[in-house]
Amino acid sequence: MANYSTNEFKGGLKVMLDGDPCAIVENEFVKPGKGQAFNRVKLRNLMTGRVWERTFKSGESLEGADVMELEMEYLYNDGEMWHFMKTDGSFEQYAVEKKALGDTEKWLKEQVPYTVTLWNDNAIAVSAPNFIELEVVETDPGLKGDTAQGGSKPATLSSGAVVRVPLFINQGEVLKIDTRSGDYVSRA
Amino acid sequence: MTPAQVITSRVPETSAWRPTAELETLRARAALLSEVRAFFAERGVLEVETPVLGQAGSTDVYLASLSTRAHTDKGRRRLWLQTSPEFHMKRLLAAGSGPIFQLARSFRNGEVGGRHNIEFCMLEWYRPGFTLNQLIDETTTLVRQLTGQALPVRCYRYRELFYHYLALDPFAERLSSLRELAEHHAGMPPATMAEEPREVCLDMLMSARIEPHLGDQQLTAVVEYPASQAALAKRHQDAHGDWVASRFELYLNGVELANGYDELTDADEQRQRFEADNAQRLALGLEEVDIDERLLQAMAHGLPEGAGVALGMDRLVQQVLGKPRLEDVISFATPRC
Questions:
Q1: Most B-contacting residue of A31, A45, A50 (CB-CB within 10 A), to test interface
Q2: Contact B111/A28, CB-based, under 8 Å?
């Protein structure tokens, strides 16, 4: 992998830091009136999702990280690993560990495309589409006629996620959910 | 890594011909430049123009010069693009010009960002017979006039700022603890800066922990920098007996606007500093820069005692007009040139 010097840093560049692949979020050149120049850099650790702030001496370099983000369909879970397949027509499959799956586990639905981050050809992160349609598998019975008033109740979805839904929602209905916030959006 | 994986916020190629600044901003900028010229005309300071190209460059270890090859009357020669108009202007002073100012195109390689552009406009002026304090007064008067605000002016010693923001004495603190502190504030794992000299640790702490606070609703002048940061300024002993640079920097809203010196006039000491710079350049694996022998000759002939200051004109325009990025006040910032 190539090395990148601070003056090549830009948003989205993938580099290695302390053994983990990171994506550069922000890079600001700072220089006191006279003296050493620095680059104040924000990096997102692709393994943990955490954002690090580091200051480098200008001219220092980091090794590039072999990271790709690919669209893959969720296939199935074999009890230990979760299996995804590339949507580029290659039918190539990747097995994903629980650790890499993270919170996305509760938004999994077969045949839906997810963004899988690969590092050295291993899946290290999976992100769900912003909106997903899921069926309600369990909730208290809907209150008839109560479509306008506020109030909410918990509902368990087919993927295992529990979300707050309006009182009029019934078991078996398909709902549109915002996976970023976990909020109910509408009936699908 | 293929370019496709690098997300950039580039404008579409079809709009890349457009200026980076709005035309209204360029009109406001022109008005500010007129005001600068009127300010100096009133005070009898002569506007001069000196070459952007020189047969020597700046040896400053932390400045990267651009250079070019040109066919001259002496054949093919390497010429340097100035990092500031200082050397030519000092030669005018030695020739007896009296007080002079210049709005000069200057170039610093690799300096790119929200407050930096490789090519920029430096407002530089020299005041024979002025003390550093007189020049601080004149600089703050100009900045207050251009901003149209009666900004209060505060002056702090470098040492005081480190006491205040980091509770340490930059002249006395042990190098090992400076390194640890710099690592901590840089977000670096321990021992990353174990090889760094004192100056780099202090620069790191100054940039990260102090500068962002300077010039909040006021003009902050910083004086008495460590002697190692004297560049082309005289040195003197402060109240603690430590050697400090007779130099000031001016900040507004966390942005460094100007850097001024009680100018070094001793040609021999100047030569030693140039040579020390080049020795340090070699040690750091950087290219040596030709020493400006004509400046040294001029200094040997006699540079009048006095003070001089360089002010980043683009940054001042940016502050006056409240623009978020430097490119917003430059007709065509380098990425769009």
A1: A31
A2: no
Q: Considering CB atoms only, which of B113, B114, B259 is closest to A34? A: B259
CA dist., res. A61 & res. A2, Å (int) = 10
Model pTM above 0.90: no
**Cα B81 from Cα B237, distance rounded (Å):** 35
The span from the CA of A162 to the CA of A155, in Å, is: 5
Whether ipTM > 0.90 holds is no
Burial B6-41 (b: 16+ CB within 10 A, else e): eeeeeeeeeeeeeebbeeebeebbeebeeebeebbe
Looking at beta carbons, which residues of chain B come within 8 Å of A21?
A: none
Residue linked to tokens 């010429």? B79
User: Residue for token digits 């003296």?
Assistant: A35
What length does chain B have? 337
Q: How far apart are CA B40 and CA B245, in angstroms?
A: 27
Q: Which 8-state DSSP code applies to residue B153?
A: E
B305-322 per-position pLDDT tens digit: 999 999 999 999 999 999
What does the block give as tokens for B304?
């009048």
| Cα B25 from Cα B323, distance rounded (Å) | 9
Buried b (16+ CB within 10 A) or exposed e, A131-156: ebbbebeebeebeeeeeeeeeeeebe
Task: State the Cα–Cα distance between residues B158 and B153, nearest whole angstrom.
Answer: 16
